Amino acid sequence: MIRIDCQGVSTDALAQSEQIRAAADCFTRHGYAILDHVLPEDAVRGLHDEFNDRYKDYITDREPEDSLEVGDKRFMIPLHLSGNLGAPLVFANPYVIALVREVLGHDAVLEAFGAIISLVGSEAQHPHPDGPPLFGSEISALLPAHALTFALPLVEMNEVSGTTALWPGSHRWLGPKEDVPPERPVIPVGSCVLWDFRLIHSGAPNRSDRPRPMVYATYARRWYQDPVNFIKAAQQRLVFEPAFFEGIPEDMRTLFSHVRGALLPGEPFRG
Ligand SMILES: O=C(O)CCC(=O)C(=O)O
């Protein structure tokens, strides 16, 4: 599989960098991009500790009100945009945002932010895209991406802990193809993977002796809202306190342009 190493790549003028161009090309053609070294390993280990501490009540085989079971022993949970888990380096990582803006346009938004946890003994997830085709599959397959998923594993994703199996090119398929085997990329700590919302993928079984959490974010064109993964009233796409918004770097504020109208002075945002 194609991988792009971001180690030592200056964050100035990233859009013009060879790495982001190659990542955008891979994403457009194959429907995924793997970016290595987007965060220091130690920082991700710190995020893992923070996750285990702040979200311990979610590391259990039951579906809390604000979460969604997305497979056997696999849950999607909201993450509050605070602490290091909610820092710009995570939800607006410079390498990731450079790629997001290349493929979704400069006004792309952060549509949802949370974690997917696959518990010990979780089974393979059913292969699926993250959203339905936009206007019927024939047209959808020809279009540029309208949304994508960013996954930052907090423990290495590999054959034992399970990875996200990907079917490269499936964002352009006109229907299911039963006999095509997936790719199963190893994603080390500090690396991330992004896939087109149309790409067929599936969380692999966790055969390790510890849960395998990943931070995820949905980035989308400003007009798009994920229509399938938020089906319960208590689920929230974005959760943050008023002070959070004031701390966002100026050039990242457009990530929240779709919710700005709903912000009430001094009130937390839950939406
Ligand atoms: O657990 C994983 O590796 C992926 C989960 C996923 O892609 C999903 O729930 O849509």
Give structural notes.
With 271 residues, the protein is an alpha+beta fold. The chain has one domain (4-270): Jelly Rolls (Sandwich), CATH 2.60.120.620. It contains 6 helices and 12 strands. The model has no long low-confidence stretch (mean pLDDT 95). Bound molecules: 2-oxoglutaric acid. 2-oxoglutaric acid binds next to strand 5 and strand 9.
Give the helix tally: 6
In what order do the strands lie side by side in the largest sheet? Answer: 1-2-8-6-10-5-4-3
Element-level helix/strand string: EHEHEEHHEHEEEEEEHE
**Tell me, what's the shape?**
globular
- What average pLDDT do the residues reach? 95
Helix content: 10-25%
Full CATH superfamily name: q2cbj1_9rhob like domain
The CATH architecture is Sandwich
Q: Can you tell me the number of structural domains?
A: 1
Q: Report the CATH topology name.
A: Jelly Rolls
CA-CA gap between termini: 36 Å
Judged by helices, strands and strand pairing, the structural class is alpha+beta
Structural Rg? 17 Å
What is the percentage of strand-forming residues?
15-25%
Which small molecules are bound?
Answer: 2-oxoglutaric acid
